[in-house]
Design a protein that fits this description.
The complex is a heterodimer of chains A (453) and B (192). Chain A contains 10 helices and 26 strands. With 453 residues, chain A is an alpha/beta fold. Chain A has 2 domains: 180 residues, FAD/NAD(P)-binding domain (3-Layer(bba) Sandwich), CATH 3.50.50.60; 149 residues, FAD/NAD(P)-binding domain (3-Layer(bba) Sandwich), CATH 3.50.50.60. The longest helix of chain A has 23 residues. Chain A is globular. Chain A starts with 5 loop residues before the first helix and ends with a helix. Chain B folds into 2 domains: 95 residues, Cytochrome c-like domain (Cytochrome Bc1 Complex, Chain D, domain 2), CATH 1.10.760; 80 residues, Cytochrome Bc1 Complex, Chain D, domain 2. The two termini of chain B are 30 Å apart. Classes of the chains: A alpha/beta (453), B mainly alpha (192). The interface between A and B is large, with 61 and 51 residues.
Chain lengths: 453, 192
């Protein structure tokens, strides 16, 4: 900031105050410069609220979230296997309150985009000048015959962390040696692309270290490939006797892709049996990850018009439907969807905590710039996502995106997965996997603090 | 007044966007580092280093070595290749101007004594407490996370991991296995 001298500072503030009156005429008389409402207190919403306040304390920021405590989905698979206490994943909103964010424990039930108001379940109506929509995902149970929300205490999804995570953990612990743990994966895009496969690894680690190595983990996948597939299969071979892809193979983990019967279309909840075109499978523990799309309130507000997801303006994360609303996190689709396995693909952004946070920072900077009549700042998007497959064995994927000519551009040079082999084709030394397993916890502590602290 | 100043700082970052050079909004770029390295580069995760307040020379050297392949990293070699040399210099300069914030960690008297004794070979470059580096390309160690320091020493000691600093490699490998943790905890416990 040393290059920014006092004279320019005053000039900026003067320009800012007149410009904000122009941008938001309705608030020229109000005490606060502008009112920003953030819907949803996950990683995305919390980060947006914090960074709007950090960048311009003169803006009034209200975060609306129904839960008192947030439970991190990232690394919650380690709770299922017993490596991590769920308390290490939980955090409240006191940090944001201390920064001057108004936190309302309530649920937004309506949005009037013409009047720029939101209605809360508690009855209040609030006015906004800008809104950050970060509601996460809504599960669509009815897309699978025989499945409904009524069965989730028996057939947990554990795809929103908390009570569900603990139910799945208990079921795993109660499963006898030789049991079948079945994971049903919905068609992408879904929240946490490597999550189902990390979960299979964590379950395998638990079974291996608790004298239940005769058990099976069967992944029935509605997709034909997945995130970090090569790394997962390499690790499964080294740790859990993975033989090859397909059902009926000899290792502890079996992965069945969509084209070979992985696409589950029917459930018999009473017997925990799932059916696909080629497969009928009875599980001892059944973990169905329901198909999901943008959170309900984004749909109610008529913002989720890209196949059920929210489409955004790359420079700012503003909704393609409404320039006063910024749709971030798992509920949005950022970029064109690309298939795995194509090295030249212009990958869309994964639905991860880290991406949601960089999207939130882009939205926050864009909102503050707009309120103050300043040019839109250059947006930068980045992601790091760790998967832990056993104690001391982790790997990651990194993504970077920039905006070129108004569209998202995947930066291949600054992205990619942990190495499968060294440049001379020799195996990757164990220290690499150990380091990344250690880094995962440091990453978790920092993203939680960067969002909620 | 403090709030106004904070906003001025924040806005300054936004004000200097030059459309011809994509890397000019360094503060926006730096914010993408906060996810792993903590808000404003001050880490609260034990395996992740704080980077705020390290010297620009050191930060730039490490990043450029990752980019060229001279120095290995489990993950940073991938990320850093997405940044231009000018952006790397900009990030190094940005984080070097933020204050160094030691995270003073508790450890036992025995570990402190053992760590101090074993760290005599660190002293000439990093200073007695790790807080007075003898040169712009040397990192501070006082109040850095002990877990991170231990992992760094592990990298220097493992022949399979390509590190670039000959003197560090030599000295790290001279430590006994049992001294590595003590040295890391000794520096982690220092406030200055």
């Amino acid at each position: 900031m040393s290059q920014f001298n006092r004279r320019e500072f005053i000039k900026t503030l003067a320009a800012a105050s007149s410009a904000s009156a122009l941008a938001f005429p309705s608030i020229a008389r109000a005490a606060a410069k502008a009112r920003v409402i953030v819907i949803g207190g996950g990683y995305g919403g919390a980060t947006a609220a914090k960074y709007v306040k950090l960048l311009d304390p003169g803006i009034d920021v209200t975060l609306i979230e129904p839960n008192k405590t947030y439970t991190s989905c990232p690394l919650s698979n380690e709770v299922i296997s017993g490596y991590r206490d769920i308390k290490t994943l939980q955090i409240g909103y006191d940090g944001l309150k201390k920064r001057g964010v108004n936190v309302l424990q309530d649920l937004v039930v309506g949005v009037d985009r013409a009047k720029k108001t939101v209605t809360l379940q508690g009855g209040k109506t609030l006015q906004y000048d800008a809104m950050v929509m970060s509601p996460g995902v809504e599960f669509h149970y009815n897309t699978l015959e025989g499945y409904s929300e009524a069965v989730i205490n028996d057939i947990p999804h554990a795809w929103k962390a908390g009570e569900q995570t603990l139910i799945l953990k208990k079921q795993l612990e109660a499963m006898p040696d030789g049991g079948k743990f079945v994971i049903v994966v919905p068609k992408g895009p879904f929240r946490c692309p490597p999550g189902p496969y990390e979960r299979a690894s964590q379950v395998a680690s638990y079974l291996k270290h608790h004298g239940k190595a005769k058990s099976k983990i069967i992944i029935l996948d509605a997709n034909d490939s997945h995130s970090k597939k090569g790394l997962f299969q390499q690790a499964w071979k080294a740790l859990y006797g993975f033989e090859k892809e397909g059902l009926g193979t000899s290792g502890m983990i079996e992965w069945v892709k969509a084209s070979e019967g992985g696409n589950v279309n029917k459930l018999d909840a009473a017997t925990k049996t799932v059916h696909s075109d080629f497969v009928d499978l009875k599980a001892d523990v059944l973990n169905i990850i329901p198909p999901h799309k943008a959170g309900k309130i984004a749909v109610t507000a008529d913002l989720a018009k890209a196949d059920g997801w929210c489409k955004v303006v790359p420079m700012t994360m503003a909704s393609a439907e409404d320039e006063a609303i910024y749709t971030i996190g798992d509920s949005c689709v950022a970029g064109e969807m690309a298939l795995y396995g194509n090295p030249n693909a212009n990958f869309d952004m994964p639905k991860s905590a880290h991406i949601a946070m960089t999207q939130a920072k882009v939205a926050a900077a864009a909102i503050v710039a707009k309120v103050n009549g300043l040019p839109t700042p250059t947006p930068y998007y980045a992601n790091t996502c760790y998967s832990i497959v056993d104690e001391g064995y982790g790997f990651s994927v990194a993504h970077q995106y920039r905006v070129v000519d108004g569209t998202f551009k995947y930066i291949k040079e600054g992205s990619g997965i942990s190495p499968m082999a060294m440049p001379d084709k020799s195996p990757v030394p164990p220290i690499y996997r150990k380091l990344e397993a250690e880094y995962a916890d440091g990453w978790l502590r920092n993203v939680m603090a960067d969002a909620f602290g | 007044m403090r709030n106004k100043l904070q906003m001025a700082f924040a806005l300054a970052g936004l004000f200097f966007v030059a459309p011809v050079q994509a890397g000019d909004d360094i503060e926006g770029l730096a914010r993408t580092c906060y996810g792993c390295h903590g808000t404003n580069g001050v880490s609260v995760g034990q395996s992740m280093p704080s980077i705020a307040g390290l010297s620009a020379d050191y930060l730039k050297t490490v990043m450029m070595e990752w980019k060229s392949g001279a120095r290995a990293s489990a993950n940073m070699t991938r990320l850093i290749s997405g940044y231009s040399d000018a952006e790397i210099a900009g990030l190094a300069s940005y984080f070097s101007k933020l204050p160094w914030t030691p995270q003073v960690q508790k450890t036992s008297k025995e570990t402190l004594a053992k760590g101090k004794a074993a760290s005599d070979r660190c002293e000439s470059c990093h200073g007695v407490t790790g807080g007075e580096p003898d040169g712009d390309d040397i990192p501070r160690l006082n109040g850095q996370w002990a877990k991170y320091l231990e992992l760094e020493l592990m990298k220097y000691r493992d022949e399979a991991f390509q590190m670039s600093h000959k003197k560090m490699i030599k000295n790290a490998r001279k430590l006994d296995e049992g001294e590595v943790n003590s040295v890391a905890e000794y520096f982690g416990a220092q406030s200055k």
